Amino acid sequence: MIKNGTRLASQVCDTQVIIVRSAESLDDLRCGGAAMVGIGAPRSGELDPAFADGTVMGKRYTDDTGAEVLVTKPGAGTLSIGPTPLQLKEVKPLPASD
């Protein structure tokens, strides 16, 4: 299982992430349809057009198991666990300070 704090990069675009909350599902973490690799690892493959919605810098993405990744560098690929895209984590509004 991937550990919290692990940094990963896409093989097919500029996306880079850091694991915030690990889960076994992250063993199949992909970006742009290709498996993610460690920073600096050899890259190969092409962006899958079905997984080309892009990632947003500084945003967190989650799945149903509670796994959470933080985008540290945006890119053209969609983050997914296997064929299932990760969901953009909604920001909780701060309470009003009257």
Q: What's the quick description here?
A:
This protein is mainly beta and 98 residues long. The chain has strands at 7-9, 16-21, 29-31, 34-35, 37-38, 60-62, 68-73, 79-81, 84-85, 87-88.
Write the layout of secondary structure elements.
Blueprint: E1 7-9, E2 16-21, E3 29-31, E4 34-35, E5 37-38, E6 60-62, E7 68-73, E8 79-81, E9 84-85, E10 87-88
Antiparallel strand pairs: 1-2, 1-5, 2-7, 3-4, 3-8, 6-7, 6-10, 8-9
Q: Secondary-structure element order, as H and E?
A: EEEEEEEEEE
List how many beta strands DSSP finds: 10
Q: Widest sheet: strand order?
A: 5-1-2-7-6-10
* Structural class computed from helices and strand pairing: mainly beta
Largest sheet: 6 strands, antiparallel
**Distance, first to last CA:** 45 Å
* Percent range of helical residues: under 10%
Number of domains: 1
Number of helices: 0
Sum up the overall morphology in one term.
globular
Low-confidence spans: none
> Can you give the mean pLDDT?
95
Share in β-strands:
25-35%
Cα-based radius of gyration, to the nearest Å = 14 Å
